[in-house]
């Protein structure tokens, strides 16, 4: 079974395609990338996720060769990329604005990079057609960029950057300019194309949903540092910090002090006179240490009666209900004034739903529902 | 939907009458049979006939045209380079001085520019003629070109150049294949501006021309100093006609292409 | 290497043909008039090396500038240029603002045409546009003929060769420079701001004063400088329309140079004119800078 799962980062034998080695990038006094070390493997779909100004774009521009690291090294397939200008790198980039040449047709845009490669006319023709077919743009080959729709432009940009068969393709917010519906379709298309071509993709995005959907691994960045790198499910289920837990999805964070109970269990005392919450983790915490429990709203059950045998349960009052259609989110105030969000799927019709404003309810969750975090 | 109010319609009408009346009168009186410009004595085209036989005017026009072609072409090359440097080059030694020298000629009174260039030409012993006028015109019109081109470059999406580099272009290729075609309209309007400025210039040309080379504005100026002349009216009419045809056709062409582009964009969005 | 060439070609051109000539003007303004070729003293003799240079420096003085303050022709010319430039700037604003306003309020499909109508004179020869007024303003000119015929006046007005003619000439030729920046500012103005002002109890007129005028301030300032700065050193308009009665410094400089052949005094006149211009130029730059920052 493990052989079929794509996880080269777990194999110490595997040689990374890209290596950042203690890379620092400063612009004047501003540090955009702070002593960053990271490997990216061949055929990976690697997402750099973070708020604007976190350094994700700078990382990508250093890979493309538009910026040089102030300190440290970037290796591509073992070769140091310092002093290799952008036009001589086996790396191509898909720009956020697409940067399609407005004076050239779709065909000429895609052929642009090939013409720089000393290819014969016939070879260029074949390759452009191949790319047009891959991106389903055959009908639009003769059009100019302003004569096609946004989604088509996006595909031209992708075809153009893939035409040179780069070892590494960089995508800077590739779907940012598309509307939501189109974006979702295009995400799957991107994954499809990545699989077909076997190219390594590095994508920069601030949209966590997009990163989770497309990527094999997600790196969450903040202030020039990578906070956590993991597969999307691990990032969501096992965030390593409050920052990651908060950045990805909705979360309740309860602050308290830890006390070890048994092998890997902890009691988290979160308020005076209240029973502590219980949680399991393989993290080692010392007694009396400050700790946080991060629980996703959908992992908290809402009930009218105190549930039997629940490890964690607490009574509260519904303050607000957000009805989203398939889900309802309850904002429940628990003793001490803390507001907890709990989400339930609306499997029944509205009329038969149990709770309304001001209702007293019981919240409960399991031992492993929440992650215990140190910071 | 906006509509003309009475006030706006009146102020626009009065304003444009003020702007165009003198020129219209000039054109009408160029067809006046009388030598006396203020008395209408019937329609005639005799002043145009006299004009085309006036060798001095024709010579001056030819000099002016050559000066304008040479100076505007050199100015376009230098001005585009200067604009590119100002917008793209970041810091370099003497940047402040450089940008100062680009903007200063725009506000410098012509009499001072002319005087200073003349003193330079005398100082280095350069005979005044077509060459000196070309040098002088190039100097001030390259600044206009660079302002026009740099305003286009500022709004130019820099990632287009990066995309070209990314797709294997050297910086020179990227300029030739991507930047230049896209900023071409601005470069052309820069050239046209430089050309017109050179055609128009009286003051700087008066300082820097010698007896061997007289430009049309110098000729016109010395003629009209003595008063209104029907021959100059005819010449003015021809010049106004050329400019009018040029400006109107240029704006029609650009309007057509804008309209077409908008239409195509709409169609693309709907497809 | 390529970058070096790109920078140095226009740079060297401007150094040689803009900065150096100006230094020469400065130097000659400090020299003495002489009946020689060239008609000034001293000339720099580099064959004598450093001593020659020191000797050259010691002969420079501010005599010409002192002369400018003593002969009242010059300071009167400066003052009258300032007055004419300032007054005609105000007049141009008064004529130009309603036109720019009318353009900005015009229906969308009209605007390109109106814009072209403003730009067209701008491409037409300056000299010809000034000249076109000569036939109108003269004693037997069309304006007087019209007014006499209408019976408004009984004797021809004396306009040609007076400062009034110069004002008309400046307003006429520089009008597009005033209209275009104001129009650009007014066009950006969101019409819902005026509706909001009226909604909040302003009358039409007070909404104009309290909203439109302040928001077009940058355009007004830019337009005023674009008229004032070139008008101050204007030569063609006063010499064609102003006659001998109108004193403007551009004309004085021209005559000093071509008629009197007094190069050092002409150079000194130029240097002082430039010093006067520096203040409005700096103010103008600052206004542009502020407008750019506000745009971002």
UniProtKB/TrEMBL annotation, chain A:
<protein>
    <recommendedName>
        <fullName>Spermidine/putrescine import ATP-binding protein PotA</fullName>
        <ecNumber>7.6.2.11</ecNumber>
    </recommendedName>
</protein>
<keyword id="KW-0997">Cell inner membrane</keyword>
<keyword id="KW-0813">Transport</keyword>
<dbReference type="GO" id="GO:0016887">
    <property type="term" value="F:ATP hydrolysis activity"/>
</dbReference>
<dbReference type="InterPro" id="IPR013611">
    <property type="entry name" value="Transp-assoc_OB_typ2"/>
</dbReference>
<comment type="function">
    <text>Part of the ABC transporter complex PotABCD involved in spermidine/putrescine import. Responsible for energy coupling to the transport system.</text>
</comment>
<dbReference type="GO" id="GO:0005524">
    <property type="term" value="F:ATP binding"/>
</dbReference>
<dbReference type="InterPro" id="IPR027417">
    <property type="entry name" value="P-loop_NTPase"/>
</dbReference>
<dbReference type="GO" id="GO:0015847">
    <property type="term" value="P:putrescine transport"/>
</dbReference>
<dbReference type="GO" id="GO:0043190">
    <property type="term" value="C:ATP-binding cassette (ABC) transporter complex"/>
</dbReference>
<keyword id="KW-0067">ATP-binding</keyword>
<comment type="subunit">
    <text>The complex is composed of two ATP-binding proteins (PotA), two transmembrane proteins (PotB and PotC) and a solute-binding protein (PotD).</text>
</comment>
<keyword id="KW-0472">Membrane</keyword>
<comment type="similarity">
    <text>Belongs to the ABC transporter superfamily. Spermidine/putrescine importer (TC 3.A.1.11.1) family.</text>
</comment>
<dbReference type="GO" id="GO:0015417">
    <property type="term" value="F:ABC-type polyamine transporter activity"/>
</dbReference>
TrEMBL record, chain B:
<feature type="transmembrane region" description="Helical">
    <location>
        <begin position="175"/>
        <end position="197"/>
    </location>
</feature>
<keyword id="KW-1003">Cell membrane</keyword>
<feature type="transmembrane region" description="Helical">
    <location>
        <begin position="130"/>
        <end position="154"/>
    </location>
</feature>
<feature type="transmembrane region" description="Helical">
    <location>
        <begin position="12"/>
        <end position="31"/>
    </location>
</feature>
<dbReference type="Pfam" id="PF00528">
    <property type="entry name" value="BPD_transp_1"/>
</dbReference>
<keyword id="KW-1133">Transmembrane helix</keyword>
<feature type="transmembrane region" description="Helical">
    <location>
        <begin position="232"/>
        <end position="253"/>
    </location>
</feature>
<feature type="domain" description="ABC transmembrane type-1">
    <location>
        <begin position="61"/>
        <end position="253"/>
    </location>
</feature>
<keyword id="KW-0813">Transport</keyword>
<dbReference type="InterPro" id="IPR035906">
    <property type="entry name" value="MetI-like_sf"/>
</dbReference>
<comment type="similarity">
    <text>Belongs to the binding-protein-dependent transport system permease family. CysTW subfamily.</text>
</comment>
<dbReference type="InterPro" id="IPR051789">
    <property type="entry name" value="Bact_Polyamine_Transport"/>
</dbReference>
<feature type="transmembrane region" description="Helical">
    <location>
        <begin position="67"/>
        <end position="87"/>
    </location>
</feature>
<feature type="transmembrane region" description="Helical">
    <location>
        <begin position="99"/>
        <end position="124"/>
    </location>
</feature>
<dbReference type="InterPro" id="IPR000515">
    <property type="entry name" value="MetI-like"/>
</dbReference>
TrEMBL record, chain C:
<dbReference type="GO" id="GO:0005886">
    <property type="term" value="C:plasma membrane"/>
</dbReference>
<keyword id="KW-1003">Cell membrane</keyword>
<feature type="transmembrane region" description="Helical">
    <location>
        <begin position="114"/>
        <end position="136"/>
    </location>
</feature>
<keyword id="KW-0472">Membrane</keyword>
<keyword id="KW-1133">Transmembrane helix</keyword>
<feature type="transmembrane region" description="Helical">
    <location>
        <begin position="166"/>
        <end position="186"/>
    </location>
</feature>
<dbReference type="InterPro" id="IPR000515">
    <property type="entry name" value="MetI-like"/>
</dbReference>
<keyword id="KW-0812">Transmembrane</keyword>
<feature type="domain" description="ABC transmembrane type-1">
    <location>
        <begin position="78"/>
        <end position="284"/>
    </location>
</feature>
<protein>
    <submittedName>
        <fullName>ABC transporter permease subunit</fullName>
    </submittedName>
</protein>
<feature type="transmembrane region" description="Helical">
    <location>
        <begin position="12"/>
        <end position="30"/>
    </location>
</feature>
<dbReference type="Pfam" id="PF00528">
    <property type="entry name" value="BPD_transp_1"/>
</dbReference>
<dbReference type="GO" id="GO:0055085">
    <property type="term" value="P:transmembrane transport"/>
</dbReference>
<feature type="transmembrane region" description="Helical">
    <location>
        <begin position="206"/>
        <end position="228"/>
    </location>
</feature>
<dbReference type="InterPro" id="IPR035906">
    <property type="entry name" value="MetI-like_sf"/>
</dbReference>
């Amino acid at each position: 079974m493990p052989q079929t799962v794509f996880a080269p980062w777990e194999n110490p034998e595997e040689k990374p395609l890209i290596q950042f080695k203690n890379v620092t990038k400063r612009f004047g006094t501003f540090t955009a990338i702070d002593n960053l070390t990271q490997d990216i493997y061949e055929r990976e779909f690697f997402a750099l996720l973070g708020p604007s100004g976190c350094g994700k774009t700078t990382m990508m521009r250093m890979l493309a060769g538009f910026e040089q690291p102030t300190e440290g090294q970037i290796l591509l397939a073992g070769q140091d990329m310092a002093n290799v200008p952008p036009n001589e790198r086996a790396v191509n980039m898909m720009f956020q604005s697409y940067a399609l040449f407005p004076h050239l047709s779709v065909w000429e845009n895609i052929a642009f990079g090939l013409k720089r490669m000393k290819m014969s006319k016939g070879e260029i023709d074949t390759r452009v057609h191949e790319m047009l077919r891959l991106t389903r743009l055959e009908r639009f080959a003769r059009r100019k960029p302003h004569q096609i729709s946004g989604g088509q432009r996006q595909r031209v940009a992708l075809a153009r950057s893939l035409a040179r068969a780069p070892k590494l393709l960089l995508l800077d917010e590739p779907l940012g300019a598309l509307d939501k519906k189109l974006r979702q379709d295009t995400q799957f298309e991107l994954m499809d194309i990545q699989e077909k071509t076997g190219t390594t993709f590095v994508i920069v995005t601030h949209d966590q949903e997009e990163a989770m959907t497309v990527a094999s691994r997600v790196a969450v960045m903040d202030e020039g540092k990578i906070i956590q790198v993991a597969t999307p499910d691990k990032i969501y289920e096992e965030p390593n910090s409050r920052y990651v837990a908060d950045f990805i999805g909705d979360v309740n964070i309860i602050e308290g002090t830890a006390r070890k109970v048994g092998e890997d269990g902890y009691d988290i005392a979160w308020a005076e006179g209240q029973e502590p919450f219980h949680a399991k983790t393989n993290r080692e915490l010392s007694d009396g240490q400050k700790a946080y429990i991060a629980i996703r709203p959908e992992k908290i059950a809402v009930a009218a009666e105190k549930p039997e045998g629940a490890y964690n349960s607490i009574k509260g009052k519904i303050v607000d209900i957000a009805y989203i259609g398939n889900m309802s989110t309850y904002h429940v105030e628990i003793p001490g004034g803390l507001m907890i969000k709990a989400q339930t799927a609306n499997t029944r019709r509205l009329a038969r739903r149990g709770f309304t404003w001001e209702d007293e309810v019981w919240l409960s969750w399991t031992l492993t529902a929440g992650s215990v975090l140190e910071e | 939907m906006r509509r003309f109010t009475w006030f706006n319609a009146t102020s626009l009408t009065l304003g444009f009458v003020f702007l165009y009346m003198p020129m219209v009168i000039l054109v009408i009186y160029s067809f006046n049979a009388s030598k006396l410009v203020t008395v209408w004595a019937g329609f005639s085209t005799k002043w145009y006939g006299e004009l085309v036989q006036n060798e001095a005017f024709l010579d001056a026009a030819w000099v002016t045209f050559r000066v304008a072609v040479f100076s505007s072409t050199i100015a376009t090359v230098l001005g585009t380079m200067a604009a590119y440097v100002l917008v793209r080059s970041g810091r370099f030694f003497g940047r402040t001085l450089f940008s100062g020298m680009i903007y200063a000629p725009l506000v410098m009174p012509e009499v001072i520019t002319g005087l200073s260039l003349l003193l330079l030409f005398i100082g280095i012993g350069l005979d005044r003629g077509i060459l000196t006028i070309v040098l002088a015109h190039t100097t001030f019109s390259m600044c206009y070109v660079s302002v026009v081109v740099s305003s286009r470059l500022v709004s130019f999406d820099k990632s287009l150049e990066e995309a070209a580099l990314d797709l294997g272009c050297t910086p020179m290729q990227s300029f030739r294949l991507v930047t230049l075609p896209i900023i071409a309209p601005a470069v052309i309007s820069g050239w046209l501006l430089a050309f017109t400025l050179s055609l128009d210039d009286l003051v700087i040309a008066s300082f820097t021309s010698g007896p061997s080379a007289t430009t049309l504005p110098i000729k016109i100026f010395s003629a009209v100093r003595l008063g209104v002349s029907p021959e100059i009216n005819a010449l003015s009419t021809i010049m106004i006609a050329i400019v009018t045809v040029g400006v109107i056709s240029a704006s029609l062409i650009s309007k057509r292409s804008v309209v077409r582009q908008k239409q195509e964009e709409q169609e693309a969005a709907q497809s | 290497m390529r970058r070096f060439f790109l920078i140095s070609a226009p740079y060297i051109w401007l150094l040689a043909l803009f900065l150096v000539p100006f230094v020469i003007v400065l130097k000659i303004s400090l020299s003495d008039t002489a009946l020689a070729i060239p008609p000034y003293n001293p000339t720099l003799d580099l064959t004598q090396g450093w001593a020659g240079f020191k000797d050259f420096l010691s002969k420079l003085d501010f005599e010409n500038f002192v002369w400018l303050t003593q002969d009242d022709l010059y300071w009167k010319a400066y003052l009258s240029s300032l007055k004419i430039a300032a007054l005609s700037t105000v007049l141009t604003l008064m004529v130009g603002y309603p036109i720019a306003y009318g353009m900005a309020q015009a229906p969308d499909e009209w605007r390109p045409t109106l814009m072209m109508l403003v730009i067209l004179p701008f491409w037409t020869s300056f000299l010809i546009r000034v000249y076109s007024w000569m036939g109108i303003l003269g004693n037997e000119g069309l304006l007087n003929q019209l007014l006499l015929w209408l019976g408004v006046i009984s004797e021809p007005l004396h306009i040609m060769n007076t400062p009034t003619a110069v004002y008309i000439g400046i307003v006429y030729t520089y009008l597009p420079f005033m209209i275009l920046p104001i129009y650009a500012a007014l066009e950006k103005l969101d019409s819902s701001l005026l509706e909001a002002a009226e909604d909040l109890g302003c009358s039409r007129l007070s909404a104009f004063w309290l909203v439109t005028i302040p928001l077009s301030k940058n355009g007004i300032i830019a337009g005023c400088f674009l008229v004032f700065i070139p008008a101050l050193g204007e030569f063609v308009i006063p010499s064609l329309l102003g006659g001998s009665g109108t004193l403007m410094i551009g004309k004085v400089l021209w005559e000093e140079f071509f008629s009197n052949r007094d190069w050092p005094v002409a150079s000194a006149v130029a240097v002082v004119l430039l010093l006067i211009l520096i203040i409005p130029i700096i103010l103008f730059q600052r206004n542009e800078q502020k407008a750019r920052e506000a745009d971002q």
